Amino acid sequence: MAKTKAATAVEILTLNYQLAELPSSQHRAGLAGLVMVVDKWLRQHEEPTFIEKVDKGAICRITQLNADGATLEINQAGLEALFDEIYAASTEEQARPQLLKNSRTKAIIEPLREEEREETDAKGKVKTKKVYIYPVVVPGGSFLADSQYDKSSDGKNGHWIKLWRDMVWSILRGVPATRKPFEARADGNYAEDAVKVWKDLTQPETFTVDLPSTYFLGAQAFNAETVPFKDRARFQFLLHFWLFAAQIYIPAVINNEGNRDFIGYALAIPDVSDLEGFCDELPFVLSDRTSEISGYRPRDAIVDLAIESALDLLRRLRDRLIVTTGEQATSYTVLGVDVIHTEKQGNNVRVLGVTRLDPDPPMVNEYSRIRNGYWSPLFRKQRLLNLVNHHPWYQGFDKLLCSLPYEQSIENDYFRRDVREAFQHEVEQMDESMMNGEQVNGAKLDELVFQLVRNYVGRKLESKYQLKWSEIKDKPDKKKDYEEMKQKIAKDAFLAVRSRTEKMDFINYFASTLCSVPQYLKSEDYLSLTQALYSDHDRIRTLTLLALSANS
Predict the structure, then answer these.
(1) CA atoms lying within 13 Å on the CB side of residue 244
(2) Reduced to 3 states, what is the DSSP secondary structure of residue 250?
(3) How far apart are CA 84 and CA 189, in angstroms?
(4) How far apart are CA 17 and CA 346, in angstroms?
(5) Is the pLDDT assigned to residue 74 strictly greater than 80?
(6) Does residue 11 sit in helix, strand or coil?
(7) Which residues contact 178 (CB under 8 A, 6 or more apart)?
(8) Is residue 539 within 8 Å of residue 391, measured between CB atoms?
(9) How far is 275 from 482, CA to CA, in rounded Å?
(10) Which of 16, 48, 308, 457 is spaced 20 to 30 A from 93 at the CA atom?
(11) Is 114 helix (H, G, I), strand (E, B) or coil?
């Protein structure tokens, strides 16, 4: 950090940052966010307000940018202009169905006014309801609100910028006292924060400041050993910007009633390794997001697991690199992605989990197939868990199928369809491996169990109900009976297998029931299946439950 000769009257600061010196992925993402705001937005788009401040003497420019770092040249007026950009906010009106109360005194907060509005219910009946209009402060979001980066935006409001604003207000500024930089700017001119940061930055390079969770997620005043959280002032400065480079996702879970619940926010923070390359590609990653919504959130932001956020960001970076360079290795721009899953619970913001995923091209490729190829959130979630934990594709489904109501598995169209797709994919992979001369014993068992179950269901339909697909496929009146009886046979066997948790109970049922109809298997296949029944019965039981779901 260079200073003028008069240490007490610094006019211009030159802050040189190298990725390798920064202490965390949040700091490195912060440097990328700083470049995005200053170089990719304020400068390249010639933002009018900023240009006006520059004309009046504000200095804020990136003077050097490469893969390893960047240099910022700034004066106090430029810092104030920069903070005015990232903490810009406006006051808007919001309708509330009830009067608001002060959280401490419980006193009613007077609204701006009351209005009566007509609403149409699900039955089409029009009702008149009273609403209360309150002023609310809405963060601006800088370039994130532009239609170039949020396709649903009109330049100010859109689905993606709303998600960003909701996260900021709920997580980073969940405590109302921390919202002052936004609220003060919504009311008029404000520069107290910039003045303080400027004073800190003009201190020696090793000067440290407190590190609150407002800027660094998960930070505390003191850790368990009463060691305070501190950071160099010049490093903490970058933490004002990481939220412009991080990607926000919404983990969704399916409850026992089959309904979807959103659980907090998953923040995917890129650990940038090529600053210039990442900042070149990030605008395209943002603009490639669709404007479709699911519920009230952007569809592309909804994930089944928090760690899926990292996979999705790596996938999007990979896709951009394929377009621009033909390369698939996301390690060209990031070392990995840190995911922080956080939720506001009451008046407290809780960190539910922290994890990291490094670039793994085969895993990212498989993730793309799973995300785009499966329809059931329950099935997709378990497949993703197995993927990131390097487990076989079927692992964990026994517990899932035995704990959930069967209406969500064997009677769910999406789940049945996805199981069929999974078995088909395993067979295709097995065929490809065989062509390459590879060992396929494990995959062969998957196919054997699927064929055996499918044959059992078909034979039972024929012997018990005299229904054979080749004979009724052209008879619409018989197809309904065929499907109903097929589902009944598969469901009865599914519930029977699910209830047999003991090893010998399952083996006896498998042998006496599923193998009670003629099965045309080679002798070596019979031998492999028999050996697996005794040596790996949990796997065969899981595959049997899945195969029955697929053939119901």
Answers:
(1) 28
(2) strand
(3) 9
(4) 38
(5) yes
(6) coil
(7) 172, 214
(8) no
(9) 61
(10) 48
(11) strand
Strand boundaries in 302-453, DSSP class E: 302-303, 334-345, 348-357
φ, ψ at 175 (rounded to 5°): -85, 120
Task: Please give the DSSP secondary-structure letter assigned to residue 216.
Answer: S
Mean pLDDT confidence for 288-292: 92
Alpha-carbon distance of 326 to 318, in angstroms, equals 10
Structure-token pair, residue 334: 């990031």
Q: What confidence tens digit (pLDDT) does each residue in 478-499 have? A: 778 888 888 999 999 999 999 9
Residues in the chain: 552
For the purposes of burial, counting CB atoms within 10 Å of the CB of 113, is it exposed (0-12), middle (13-18) or buried (19 or more)?
exposed
Percent of the chain with pLDDT over 90: 56
Place of tokens 């479709």: 292
Tokens representing 199 are 């004073």
Q: How many other β-carbons are positioned within 10 Å of the β-carbon of residue 472?
A: 17
**Is 327 within 8 Å of 333 (Cβ atoms)?**
no
Classify each residue of 48-67 as buried b or exposed e, where b means 16 or more C-beta atoms within 10 Å of its C-beta: eebeebbeeebbbebeebee
Residue 344 region, left (φ>0) first, then alpha (ψ -120 to 50), else beta?
beta
Please give the distance of CA 331 from its chain centroid, rounded to a whole number: 20
CA atoms within 13 A on the CB side of 112: 11
31, 69 in Cβ contact below 8 A?
A: yes
Task: Tell me if 441 sits within 8 A of 452, measured CB to CB.
Answer: no
pLDDT band, residue 198 (cuts 50/70/90): very high
